[in-house]
Write a structure and sequence with these properties.
Strand content: under 5%
CATH topology: ABC transporter involved in vitamin B12 uptake, BtuC
Number of helices: 16
Shape: globular
Order of helices and strands: HHHHHHHHHEEHHHHHHH
Radius of gyration: 28 Å
Length: 360
Amino acid sequence: MTETDAPQQGRKQSFEERLDQADSAVATFARDDKTLFHIVRVFLRDYPVAIPAMVMVLSIIVFGLINPNFITPNTLSLVMKQITVIGIVALAQTLVILTAGIDLSVSAILVLSSFVMGKIAVETGVPVPISIAIGLAIATFMGAVNGVLVTKVKLPPFIVTLGTLSIFTALKLWYSKSQSLRSADVQEHAPSLLWFGKPITMGSATIIYGVVALIVAAMIVSYILRQTAWGRHVYAIGDDPEAAALSGINVDRTLIQVYAFAGLICGFAGWVSIGRVGSVSPIGFETANLDSITAVVIGGTSLFGGRGGIAGSVLGAIIVGVFNTGLVLARVDNYWQQFAVGCLVIIAVALDQWIRRATK
C-alpha cells in the first residue's frame, strides 16, 4: 500500500462507519383510516341515486303521518299522473346535464312539437302517425340546432339554449297564432293523439298510459347510458372532455347527438302531453325547463357533468310531485310549496359539491 492510498482507505472506512450508524428506517406515511363518515360519503358518490330514494321514502312517510289520506293508491297514482310529462322531459335534461351542459329550450321544443302534431293531424287531415313523425323530426332538428351551436360555434350551452328558448317560443306563438288547439277538435279529428291519456285501473288506483310511457322511456334511456359505448362516451365527456377527446371520442359529434336525442325525447313528451291534458295550449308547460332541471338536480345528477343517471331524475320528479301534493293535503299555501322545492334544490347542489370532494 502506498502512502497516497492510506488517506483514501481512511476516508472509505469513515464512510462505512457512518453508513452503519445511519438511521435505517424507511419513509412511512400516516395511515388514513376510513371512518364511517368517509365510507358513507364515498358510497353516496358511487351511488348518487341513494339520496333521492331515501328522500322519496322519507317524504312519503312524513306526509302520510301528517295526512293518512296521502298514503293511498289513489293519491300516489295522482302524483304519478302529475309528473308524467315533466318526468319525460327530465330524461332529456339528464342527457344534457351529464355532459356538463344545460338545455333551457326543452319547454319550447315540447310545446312547438305538440302543436305541429296536433295542427297537422286536425287541420290538414294528415294521418296521425305521419303527423307524429313530423313532430318528432322537428323536435329532433331543434335539439340538433342547439348541439351545433354549442360545438361548432363554441358558445356556452346556457347562452345557446337561452337564445333558442326565445326563438322557439316565438315560432310556437307564430305557428299556433296564439290560439289553443281545443280538446273537442282533437277528439273529433285525431283521437289517437289522446292515447297516452287513457286510464288504466288497478284496484283503487288509476294511472294513464303516459305513466307507462315514462317508465318504458326511462328504462330505454338508462340502458343506452349504462350498457352502450355511446352512453359511456356521454359520461366521459361530462367528466373531462379533453381526456375524452384524447382517448379517441369524437366529442363534437357525440354532443350534437346528445342534444338531438334530447330534442327527440322532448317531442315524445309533447305527444304524451296532448293525451295528458287533452288539448294543446301555447302557454302550456312554460316552466318545464326549470321543472326538469329541478328534478334532475334533486335526483342526484351533478350540474358539473359525469355523474348521475336516469333513475335519480325520475325519483327527483316524483319527489317534487310528492312535496306538492303532500303540502296541498296539509293545507299549506302555494308559496310555501315553492319555498320547499327551492330548499330541496339548494340542499341537493350543496350535497353534490360535498360528495364530489370524496376520495376513495
